[in-house]
Amino acid sequence: MAIREVLQLGDPRLREACRPLVEFNSEQIESTIADLQDTLAHWHETTTYGRGIAAPQIGVMERIIFMNVDKPWVLINPEIVERSTETMVVWDACLSFLCIFFQVRRNEWIRVRYQDMTGNTHEIMAQGELSELLQHEIDHLDGILALDRMTDIKTLCTREEFEKRHRHNSPYAV
User: Fold this and answer.
1) From CA 5, how far away is CA 171, in angstroms rounded?
2) Which of 30, 45, 129, 137 is catalytic?
3) Closest residue by Cα to residue 110 from 128, 92, 89, 91
4) 3 state SS of 117
């Protein structure tokens, strides 16, 4: 459909909580999902980064996530219904501020309940990298940015330094 502008750090819409989707299978929702898919594909192609994108990142304040992890995947109204007490520290970045990287603390595993495009409810248990990605994207729907989860300001680095020193040992390894 269209490659949309990704809102950047400082845009107040990134700090807003999104409303749940109540109408499924509308042209507007299909268009939003297609735009999310096209925008993510464009960012991945031009930067090699981008595994997921949340609707508020393109200015749509609805609880929709599009991810491309082994296959395209749409999650509507996702919510974390259970989390591990065990945590992990991982490198994180965001299409809304791709110039910086830092470490965040995330739950090792989570259980997520979500709806598909027809409104059917599903649950998934996610571990490791998928758990981290889902937590990142669901945070977007609540107006929380990965920067809010930074473990230590000393882990903050530029994209260039991250690629030189840490990328090979991260979810972003090429």
Assistant:
1) 24
2) 137
3) 128
4) coil
Is residue 137 among the annotated active site residues? yes
In sequence order, what are the residues at sequence separation of 6 or more whose Cβ sits closer than 8 angstroms to the Cβ of residue 74?
A: 33, 64, 65, 66, 116, 117
- In the structure encoding, which two tokens stand for residue 57, read together? 């990142």
Q: Check residue 19 and report its DSSP letter.
A: B
Average pLDDT over every residue of 143-161: 96
Does domain 12-169 fall under CATH 3.40.50.720? My reply is no
Name residue 157's amino acid: C
In angstroms, the CA 63 to CA 140 distance is 9
Amino acid 11 reads D
Q: How far apart are CA 171 and CA 68, in angstroms?
A: 13
DSSP string, 69-109: SSSEEEEEEEEEEEE-S-EEEEEE--GGGTTEEEEEEEESE
**Residue 172 contacts residue 92 (beta carbons within 8 Å):** no
Token pair listed for 124: 């998934």
What the block records as the tokens of 171 is 């979810």
Could you report the per-residue pLDDT of 3-58, keeping only the tens digit for each? 999 999 999 999 999 999 998 878 999 999 999 999 999 999 999 999 999 999 99
CA–CA gap between residue 30 and residue 26 (Å, rounded): 6
DSSP tag of 123: E
